[in-house]
Design brief:
The protein has five helices and no strands. With 143 residues, the chain is mostly helical. 72% of the residues lie in helices and 0% in strands. The termini are far apart.
């Protein structure tokens, strides 16, 4: 299934042939993350259908993942442009950024695929509910 989805999403290696050779590991991470993100978000849309708009925790994870994917693509693009001009110093920065984003996306996708909300998710939802119940202000003044 993963292979078929990856072919459908990216065309297998479409990006690798267009970037500097030193950026290939980062491109591979980006391709893997896009595929995993596609599969996870599709599953969430199938699961919740139109009610996904009410799933703020899931939507937050989707938004964070998409921002990280976009940042990875932008960093790779910038490093590639610099490398084409002979400056490979940004390749190291791109590799570090993409590696960290890859780890964050993996955690976010795993959380999306986990049916149970975490303790932090429940605490966040409770704070929101309490804020709404108290007209937007939760803390009581000690004065």
């Amino acid at each position: 299934m993963m292979g078929l989805a990856q072919k459908r999403v990216l065309g297998m290696g479409a990006l690798k042939t267009k970037v500097h050779a030193d950026l290939e590991p980062s491109v591979k991470q980006l391709q893997e993350d896009i595929t995993k993100f596609h599969i996870a978000t599709s599953a969430q849309v199938i699961k919740y259908k139109k009610k996904i708009i009410e799933q703020q925790v899931v939507l937050n994870r989707i938004a964070e993942s998409s921002i990280l994917l976009q940042s990875m693509a932008a960093v790779i693009s910038r490093a590639n442009l610099a490398a084409e001009k002979g400056d490979t110093s940004e390749v190291v920065l791109a590799s570090a950024w993409c590696g960290e984003a890859h780890q964050k996306i993996a955690a976010l996708v795993a959380d999306m695929q986990n049916a149970d909300l975490t303790k932090v998710d429940n605490a966040t939802l409770n704070v929101g509910k309490l804020s709404l119940d108290n007209n937007g202000y939760l803390a009581q003044s000690p004065i």
